[in-house]
Amino acid sequence: MKAVLLLGPTASGKTAVTLELATRFPIEVVSVDSAQVYRGLDVGTAKPGAAARERIPHHLVDIEEPIGAYSAGRFRADALRLVAEIQGRGRVPVLAGGTMLYYRALTRGIADMPVANPEVRARLEARGKARGWPALHRELAEVDPASAARIDPRDSQRIQRALEVHQVSGRPLADWHAHTDVTPLPFEALAIALEPADRSVLHQRIATRFHEMLEAGLVDELRRLRAHYRLEATLPAMRTVGYRQAWDTLEGSEPEATLADRGIAATRQLAKRQLTWMRSMDALERYDCLRPDLAAAVSGRVGEFLSLPRGT
Question: Helix (H) and strand (E) counts for the chain?
């Protein structure tokens, strides 16, 4: 049994590749995106539209309310179940997205770490806002230097989680990860990574895409979500890049005039983290996401992997 894993940072062209694959193979897409799981977060997550989802079955999209939470552990269980179901229908699972933690959970298993502690998390959130996340990153470096070395000083979500795990368990997050049992995948996987040969071009794509999201109504979408749900800034859905910056604008803590610049900068940082994760991963077949024949090249390789004749 075979499946395709398609990894790439934001704006690397994963959607175009999956559309090309769908013209040649009977695929179903399993989203590997921690933001697309939330209902209502459409504009800012570049969620596939109704036409694309009618043409190609998509899974793990719109499965959780924005006031809820979805975890890497749930993803692994859901993804393994869906891959088996898709293969059982005689179709090809394509697991596509940019949430590298989910890929790690899928391919290497997950550590049995402490569950989220709302009280500890709230205290850390308040301290992060008061002192700045780089200050908490320095604290993390004292108690968990291995995790601090991997986490950007401005990555509030990962800093908070690492400190939370340490405060709740008394053990560094890196120690929990080191004791993860690697569980082999129950299927043969072709893992393809889309990486830019020129990162400045990816940055230009990111800027263009974020401006398009603003024009498509990102702020109005968040305003409607806030009117419909009892949302808080600390919810995972609201910590998503784009929505986090739009939230600050609606709260009045940041001027609307800077929203585009803040969103683009945050998205570039996200892409940087995604690429850092990908560089640390083994057994990836890497393609320049800027090459003009990217979709065709990946499709050809998938055809070889599946041992299907061209045009099938």
Answer: 14, 6
